[in-house]
Amino acid sequence: MPVLTISRQMCSFGDDIAEALSRRLGWELITRADLFDRLPGLVLSSYDRHMLTESAKYFLNPYRDEGTFLDRLTKELFAYTEDNPAVLVGFGAQMIYAGRKDALNIRIIAEKSARIMRARKQFRVTDAEAEKILDTADRKHRKFVSTVFGADLADPLLYHQILNTSSMSVDESAATAAALIRQRELEWELERKADQMEIIDHSSLRPVLKNQSEEEFAKILDMYQIDWKYEPKTFPIQWDAEGNVTAAFSPDFYLTKFDTYIELTTMDQRYVTQKNKKVKKVRELYPGTKIKVVYKKDFYSLVERFNLNSGAS
């Protein structure tokens, strides 16, 4: 079942957004406070519970000769969410579910000034006291993820979406996250249906070629039973001052067995010169790349040469 993990800064509206998403989606909300009670297979003594609450390092201690507490927690959590879609808040859930297709990881942040204002209101304290409260929470959050998972909590690559709630309401933020989740749910459903298909029409997978020369070359490759891919890769070859790609080159064919790219061309010298320049640039920027510019008149001789080389190997 799908899972949403939420990592949040204190006073970023993270907990409120998590509750709103749980209601919108009809998914179970699981926080650090009730995590252990949701996992009956995770047997803990009162001492274990206390230490897991107080010490990040305790998660890495041995658990009943079955790996660590973290290993068992991960196993039980995966089993639980297999049947129960859930919103998971905190406890490094974004790391536990990292890389899983059934999970979306969201980070909720806000500007320090906005968080201080919210902390003042929530705790009825001064600006200085509010800032101290926030700094302590931030430090403990970072330390937990660093200690248990060896990761940087603030690394943006850990998340599918980062929400800055400095000028957003809880409802606006929840709606933004929900839109991403609904789209991902649709993609999950399409993938599931595709996996259930027993018969795949391979002819429908054949790419649409651009011109007659490419069609002829593809037929020759098929006739000689040479595996190929059509424009499988694009090589950036020019950038502007800001680092944006301004020119790129996509060779027409890639012969998988020979690790060679083929670019077809006409006899028109203008096109030949232009393509040769691009090929030269690719070779300079991507050393070791094998690429050939081929005229139509050389189709058969080239393919026969590859075929002979294949037979000799």
Helices and strands in order, then pairings?
Elements: E1 3-8, H1 14-25, E2 28-31, H2 46-54, H3 69-83, E3 86-89, H4 93-96, E4 103-109, H5 112-123, H6 127-149, E5 161-164, H7 170-196, H8 212-223, E6 228-230, E7 235-239, E8 245-249, E9 253-255, E10 260-265, H9 269-285, E11 291-295, H10 299-312
Parallel strand pairs: 1-3, 1-4, 2-3, 4-5, 10-11
Antiparallel strand pairs: 6-9, 7-8, 9-10
| DSSP helix fraction | 40-55%
Radius of gyration: 28 Å
Strand percentage: 15-25%
Return the structural class: alpha/beta
Give the second-level CATH assignment, the architecture of the largest domain: 3-Layer(aba) Sandwich
The shape is elongated
Order of helices and strands: EHEHHEHEHHEHHEEEEEHEH
Low-confidence stretches: 198-203
Could you name the CATH class of the largest domain?
Alpha Beta
- Characterize the biggest β-sheet: 5 strands, parallel
Q: How much is the average pLDDT?
A: 87
- Cα(first) to Cα(last) distance is 48 Å
Query: Could you give the count of β-strands?
Result: 11
**Can you tell me the CATH topology of the largest domain?**
Rossmann fold
